[in-house]
Each structure stands twice: as structure tokens, then as C-alpha cells.
Amino acid sequence: MVTMKFPAMFAQEASGHRDEAVGALSTFARWAAYACAGAAVLCLVAAVLLVVSALNRFPAAVPEVLSWVSVGEGASFNGEVDHPVYGYLARDPYRDVTDDGSVSTESDDRYLLFDWDGSVPAAQEAADVLTTLMGAFLLFQGARFFRDIEREGTPFTAAAARRLKSAGLIAVFAVVLSNVVGWLISSLAQTFYLTPVGMWKMGVWEIGAETGWMLALGMLLIAVGIAFDYGVVLQRQDDELL
């Protein structure tokens, strides 16, 4: 009878350690879910502020501004640019022309369409808004992932694995969407305002350094989600043994 107490005592001790670990995991998951949800809300607020900032650059209603005439500001001599050349949409292209042929920078009836390097600020603004929104969706997915862990008491569930893979797909999609939209807006601006009718011109668009690590993050999350699928099988076998 004495020898039978050791397995029972060992089982009780192991069960106590397991319950303690599950409790710690649930506590961590709860706070992690709060952090992800809070960060997601901040991303949504940031996206709204970016939209407001972009719209405030328009001196009039957006459709009206887009119907204005494209004018340039800058100077060149023998094909060499002496001053940076900017492209504007102006309500009246002749209203603020100075003696040297440049456009006065004091008028409020102009919208900066092309920067000195040929890039389109509106394209970058649109890409930033989309990236921030997709970041909010990614963080909301993270909050749901940690909620699942808190509820189930283990990270190895089918729902958790699915949410990890979904988060990875969101990260990859955010990179593709923001770059495609930015390039498309830049190309449309070049085509409609600087290119003869019936022709198409590629816009100036640079893929930022963040594109690489966002793609890497997305692929990593997808890979971890696939690994979690195997963890789900092992967790189910462990539960059956207990």
C-alpha cells in the first residue's frame, strides 16, 4: 500500500504544476489581448488622422481640385535643372505667374501634385493610410488569437493556428495592396496630367525598406501557424493520455 502512494503523489504534483502554468498562460494571454486591441485602436485613430491630414491639403473640394490645370514651378537652363521643379494643380494657371515664368508660392489656390523628384505625395498618403488600416486588422487578429488562448488554456488549438495564418496573410496583403495602390495613383497622375491623351506613363514609386520586413513577418506568421497545426495534434494526444 505504501508503494502505491508515490505515483499518486507524483500525479497530484504534476497536475498542480500544470494548473499553475495554465493559469500563468491565461493571465499573459489576457493582457496580451488587451495590448493588441489597444494598439489596433491607436492604428485606427492614426489612419483617421492621416486621412484628415491628406484632405486638408486640398484647398477646395477634391473633385474640383482634380479638375484644375496642371502647372509647373521651377527653372532649367540647357536641359539642366537650376531649381527643383514641382507640379501643381492650379485654379487659374495665369493668376500667380511671376516675371521669370515660375508660379508664386503664396497662392492658396494650388495643390501640390508632383514633388521635385516626380513622386506623387497623394500616392504615399494613400499607401500610408492603407498600411495603417491593415496594421489595425493584424492587431485585432492578434487580440482574437490571445483571447482563444485565454479561453482554451493552451495555444495549440485549431482556431489559434488559423488566426496565425490569417495574420500572416494580412501582413502580406498589406504590403502588396499599399504598393499597388501607391504605384497606381502615381501612374494615373502622370498619365492624366503629364502625358498626351491616349498614352500611359508609369509613375514614380519607390518600394520602401519596410516592405521587406513586412513580407518576412507575414511569411513567418504563416509558417508558425502551420507549425501550430502539428502542435494541435500533439495537444490532443496529450489530453487523451491525461
Automatic annotation (TrEMBL):
The keyword Transmembrane appears for this protein: yes
Domain of life assignment: Bacteria
Keyword line: Membrane, Transmembrane, Transmembrane helix
Transmembrane segments: 31-52, 169-193, 213-233
This protein's name: DUF2975 domain-containing protein
